[in-house]
């Protein structure tokens, strides 16, 4: 039964990707959300599988996925960012840190469980996207609660994030157009264009057709996969050295994040095609495996408070970032795109920039989003750990 359980975790995400490529409604829902949903349905079935195996598999998978997604980051592309783009994304990070910290303190004082951990998860989420939420949650949450809390957080983000993304494409556009300089700017003008971004995230995150199939490319991809596995082993060794056991994942996640970022400075590693897409597929495997291990009653009691928490955090982050960009006189297009880069990640930059009439912001927006993916784990774990140490009673 264990072999069948692991085969489901390995193969079923491919079925979901196949379905999303053919059914527009499922594509709009998203592959990660569907993996969580399917895993949840598996957990309700009277199947005699071991949920501890699913949880363990998910922990291993995410620790290998993180460096794979980070390997393709090209630090040199940051130099193409205009000063206002850097300033706008810095203000996004500042807004996220301030809002998550304040709301975590308020929520904790009212008896909200796991407020510091959720603040760290929200910091990672609204700096770089869903992979950061998953990684930070795996690092900070106790093993007994990680499956339910991470699954509930992803479900809540799907609802809250969907609402705000719709608002960004409709209601919020006129607000950003009233920023200084936007009224005189013609839609589609390309001021401050940067070279087209060829970054890992500029393409579809599940675009496996673009991965070269020749023998040399496949061997290189296998080599970086093994390198990511070595990083996991190093992280596990550090976890054992510090804690004496592998009950937690904090030092594992920190190790693979640091080493994955360091690996991106090695040109052969960075230029290996397909590592980002393989990492994304492993994120789907993680989502499925983790949700297969959840407890239904705990999930139901957890999801509504987390929905309220993330709703408050995202609302506050959007408003604070908007206000800061006004104060620092950031133009409306840059303000909107840097907010989207942090809140949603690379795939969402293009539709928002197109809708706003600022196509020249697509490349720098993607660069900001990838930078957020790289630093999100560190910021999230840092904020969560600080809040846990300063507010032990929460």
Structure write-up:
- The protein has helices spanning 2-20, 24-29, 31-44, 51-70, 83-109, 115-128, 130-140, 143-169, 172-177, 215-243, 250-263, 267-270, 275-292, 296-327, 332-344, 349-356, 362-390.
- It has 394 residues and is mainly alpha-helical.
- It has one domain (77-279, 296-390).
- Helix 4 (51-70) packs parallel to helix 11 (250-263), helix 5 packs antiparallel against helix 6 and helix 7 packs parallel to helix 17 (362-390).
- Residues 186-198 have low confidence and may be disordered.
Helices and strands: which structural class?
Answer: mainly alpha
Instruction: Tell me the number of helical segments per DSSP (H or I, 4 or more residues long).
Output: 17
Q: Rg to the nearest angstrom?
A: 20 Å
β-strand number: 0
Strand content: under 5%
Would you tell me the overall average pLDDT? 86
Specify the helix fraction band. over 70%
Number of domains: 1
The end-to-end distance, rounded to whole angstroms, is 40 Å
What would you call the shape?
A: globular
User: Main beta sheet: strand number and arrangement?
Assistant: none
Q: Return the string of H and E elements.
A: HHHHHHHHHHHHHHHHH
Question: What is the compact description of this entry?
Answer:
With 394 residues, the chain is mainly α. The chain has helices spanning 2-20, 24-29, 31-44, 51-70, 83-109, 115-128, 130-140, 143-169, 172-177, 215-243, 250-263, 267-270, 275-292, 296-327, 332-344, 349-356, 362-390.
